[in-house]
Design goal:
alpha/beta; Rossmann fold; 9 helices; about 10% strand
Length: about 200
């Protein structure tokens, strides 16, 4: 089961990914975590990434794809994986497709959590107000201004990934505004309908 979860910040991707991990016994792969692990392990691609990061530059798509390629060869990812927060751009989506094809693999599903962005902002504002009312510090992610900036970045850069997969007939849209259990049920139903594609070769 090879999946990608798409959706703006606050759509509930992390929550659903965790449930899918528990249900299917496959790892959730976050590019940030993989990058840190590759750097710590001193793998060839990890050393490349380290040099780029130490120079204060952004890690290239080529390096990120290399790290994903290495990671999905590990034993726990042989049965599948969930990519969360990647690909972020169409270029990354294309590179991911060709890397998987080179291994004789294909994605089983791309799930997009569709949400009402103005309602999301409202939700974050409310959460921040409730936190302040309790006299607790507001988490950085729950700061409405920080959240709006992340949302803008998503709309500018990442929102184009969904149409890319849609054009290939690979996307399943799920209403992310439903209660968490209903979202999980909709994802399970969508996955039951997607027959895993056999590896070529």
């Amino acid at each position: 089961m090879r999946l990608i979860l798409l959706g703006p910040p606050g759509a509930g991707k992390g929550t659903q990914a965790k449930r899918l991990v528990d249900k299917h016994g496959i790892p959730q792969l976050s590019t940030g975590d993989m990058l840190r692990a590759a750097v710590a392990a001193g793998t060839p691609v990890g050393l490349k990434a380290k040099a780029v990061m130490e120079a204060g530059q952004l890690v290239s798509d080529e390096i990120v794809i290399g790290i994903v390629a290495d990671r999905i060869e590990e034993a726990d990812a042989r049965r599948g994986f969930i990519l969360d927060g990647f690909p972020r751009t169409v270029a990354q989506a294309e590179a991911l497709d060709s890397m998987l094809a080179g291994k004789g693999l294909a994605l089983d599903a791309v799930i997009e959590l569709k949400v009402d962005q103005s309602a999301l902002v409202g939700r974050i504002v409310k959460r921040a107000e409730e936190t302040k009312a309790r006299g607790e510090p507001v988490r950085k992610d729950d700061d409405p201004d920080v959240f709006k900036t992340r949302l803008d970045a998503y709309n500018r850069d990442t929102a184009v990934v969904a149409p890319y997969y849609k054009a290939k007939g690979a996307i399943v849209e799920v209403d992310g505004m439903q209660p968490i259990d209903a979202v999980s049920a909709a994802i399970d139903a969508a996955l039951a309908g997607s027959q895993p594609r056999a590896a070529h070769g």
